[in-house]
Structures are given as C-alpha cells and as structure tokens.
Amino acid sequence: MMKERPVAEPKKISPALKLGLELGPILVFFAAYLLLKDNIYTIGGRDYEGFILVTAGFIPLMLASTFALWRLTGKLSKMQVMTAVLIVIFGGLSVWLNDDRFFKMKPTLIYLLFGGALGLGLLRGESWLQIVMEEAVPLTHEGWMILTRRLCYFFLALAVLNEVIWRTQSTDTWVYFKTFGLSAAVFLFFITQGKVFQDHGIEEAEGDES
Predict the structure, then answer these.
(1) How many CA atoms lie within 13 A of 177 on its CB side?
(2) pTM for this structure?
(3) Any transmembrane segments, and where (predicted)?
C-alpha cells in the first residue's frame, strides 16, 4: 500500500520580517509618491505623472514581496493572492491607459470581494473567516458568526469610504488615506472586538463548562 505523504506545515519566520514584507511595499510606494508626485516624465513620447510611474514600480515590488513570503512560509492566504492579482490588473490598467482612477478603485473592489464573500458564507450559516483565522484566534461558532458579520459590514463600509475619498478628494489625500487610514481602520476594528474574544474564546467557554 502506498503511504500518504504528510502535509507540510507552514514554515515560521520572524514576525518583524513578515510585517516588513507585507507593509514594506506600501511604505515604499508612499515615499516614492512624495518624492515624484510633482514631476512629469516623458517615456516613449508619452507624458506620465509621478503617481503613474510609482504605480508601475509598485506592481513588481508587491509581487516580489508576495513571492518572498511564499518562499519563506510555504503558503499564502487567499486574501494575499487575491490582493496581488488585483494589484496587477488595476495597477496595470492605470499604467497602460495612463489613468490613475483604476488603481484608486482597487481597494474598493478588494473590500467588496472580501465583504461579499463573508456575506455569502453568512447566508449559508457559515463563517468563512473561521477557515482563515481559526488557528490564530480560537472562538466558539457563535463568536465566529458575530465577528464575521461585523467584519462583513466593516469591509463594505471601507469600500464605500474609499469610493468617496478618491472621487471627492485630491490624489494626495487618497494616498495618505490608503497608506495610513485603511491600515489604522483595520487595526482599530480588531482592537474594538476584545469583548467578542473575551466572551467567546474557546478556553473560557471550556472553563465555564467545567
């Protein structure tokens, strides 16, 4: 009889290195934008604003960072893969058509897809967030459903907010919002969910039963 090969466990890397690979490209994009935003560059007889040039550099940088994460950890989340794909598509369209609107719409689509996926799972009585985060955050089924419902609404709200910002504000404002505002919003969301983790943590639930 053939023996089944054991499933390879994800490799562990330094949290600082992981954070650097995830946030590094975004911070480089921000710094490059501040440096080049007021310039016009002529390439192949066509004029490009600094934002478009920075976007063109961000695409391979993000792909290289994602590839490095995969090589170091042995896996990528569906969210990381989808984000990389959308960056290539919408960033590529912005560069190709010399139109920054496509890249600015990318966060809207990302949050709509994530919020929609979580909502679809909820309609089926399932928490698809649990599949992604169960190992890191052990919760009861009820806890996962509460957290998933809130995160679904939160993602949809971020999609709307991104649309409002890029359509009504300057590029400078949108870049600051994209670099710092969205990251801070996600961080604050999970910080404010402490009561869910406290009330529905599996260890506490087991302790109540004993």
Answers:
(1) 19
(2) 0.82
(3) 16-36, 48-69, 81-97, 109-129, 150-168, 174-191
